[in-house]
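In the previous lecture we treated proteins in isolation. Real proteins rarely work alone, and many bind small molecules. This record shows how such a complex is specified: first the sequence, then the SMILES for NAP.
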Amino acid sequence: MFIDKVAWITGASSGIGESLVHEFVRRGATVVASSNDLPGLERVKAACADKSSMVHCVPFDLADTSGIDKIVEQQINTIGRIDFLLNIGGISQRARIDETPLWLDRKIFEINYFGTIALTKAVLPYMIRQQSGHILATSSISGRFGFPLRSAYSASKQALHGFFETLFLENKRFNIRSSVIIPGRVRTSISFHALTGEGIEHGKLDEGLANGISTEKAAEIIIKGIMRNKREILVGRGEMLLLHIRRYFPWLFFRIADKIKST
Ligand SMILES: NC(=O)c1ccc[n+]([C@@H]2O[C@H](COP(=O)([O-])OP(=O)(O)OC[C@H]3O[C@@H](n4cnc5c(N)ncnc54)[C@H](OP(=O)(O)O)[C@@H]3O)[C@@H](O)[C@H]2O)c1
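The predicted 3D structure, ligand included, written as tokens:
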């Protein structure tokens, strides 16, 4: 399913995206690896050892996608096609609503929502022409409910569900698949880079994340979800139960969420 295919992965310089690069390359795909960190991307490429020539590093800032159409056109001219687009890159937040200035809400939306949809919109016409492709976005369990200290993060991830459900409905007829990845707790540096109310990095590995699943396990679950063409790919352990509790027993969810240590 992945041999000789091309997968574009954002957030490829660390965490879940990095493990996905390895998983796709191992399965015979060529990878376009993106993030805003070229040395980080080159480190991931070098770690692919004898398969490193299958990785093309294409850095860009998800917060500024003004040149994205050109970047995608260049990749199409070089590689010829894009079979999978995995929008993994994103940033979290650790600040109460009253501590979060509006510019910071906008910054988190620029990266998590507008950056993701800008790349998706640039790639979509090529997939329509090919009459095939699979586009994935990365939400979060807090993209299914509100959560303390994550107002803009939760809202930006919830917005992705609306966009990607529409993408699926509109483009099924072109044989284009679409999925939303919903991670719970995965052991990455996401909390480290999460933005505080001053717009600086939180700089800590949260306790919950430290006990999360590995990025390798997360990548394996995502690959299985792609192979089964799942609309929603749940990535986590016991914490995923919260999704069902929120849906079927909202009163219980609010009691639990009130008690969860949120930093
Ligand atoms: N880990 C979890 O438990 C968890 C839970 C729910 C959802 N998620 C979601 O999973 C996705 C991957 O996160 P992760 O856990 O793997 O965290 P991570 O290790 O911090 O990786 C985040 C990736 O996003 C990239 N990124 C951030 N800001 C960017 C920007 N402005 N422009 C370009 N790239 C940017 C980073 O690259 P740079 O080095 O260039 O910044 C990095 O490659 C995110 O969308 C996150 O919201 C994770």
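Summary for your notes: The CA atoms of residues 28 and 239 lie 33 Å apart. Residues 11, 13-17, 35-37, 40, 61-63, 88-92, 111, 138, 140, 183, 185-186, 188-190, 193, 209, 212 surround NAP (CB under 6 Å).
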